[in-house]
Amino acid sequence: MPRLAGRDGEIAEAAVVISIRSDQELVFIDPKNYHRRMTMMERGPRQLDEVATAVYSHLFHALGESTRLAVLQHLAWGEHRVRDLVDHIGLAQSTVSKHLSFLLECRLVTVRPDGRSSWYSLSDPVAISGLIAAAERLLDVTGTTAELCAHLRHPWHMNGNGTEGG
Fold this sequence. Notes:
This protein is an alpha+beta fold. Helix content is 40%, strand content 19%. It has helices at residues 50-63, 66-75, 82-89, 93-105, 125-141, 150-153; strands at residues 3-5, 11-21, 24-29, 109-114, 117-122. The strands form two sheets. It has a three-stranded antiparallel beta sheet with strand order 1-2-3, with no helix packed on it. The chain has a two-stranded antiparallel ribbon with strand order 4-5.
């Protein structure tokens, strides 16, 4: 844990250090270790990375819609065509296509053309699973217990045809 020295040489430990860029870092002090005589170094106002903020916002927007989460859950079973997803989800083809387009734009899914059909799949099942697991932990610490389908949390345990495999 990083240590910060006060004016009188007392040592306080930082509770968390989050690195934003190589030249900046935010330090959050645990109040029980903070002493009122400790000096805080001012580095000036923090500048947000607007591009990174927009990218994260776009990703969370993609995950913030229940139909898109349903599409991701179905794709965790393996490749699907738009027609397959329409049958599973029960929405219009245009609606499913619109959501797939947004997920493609966010690079959460990939498409594989096959003749006149297009097959959609998760772009990185392990990374998406990690994101879902992190969201479940966050929900848990905020007092909400919710879990998406187990196959979305562990998609690499499934074969392309939706049966368990290794």
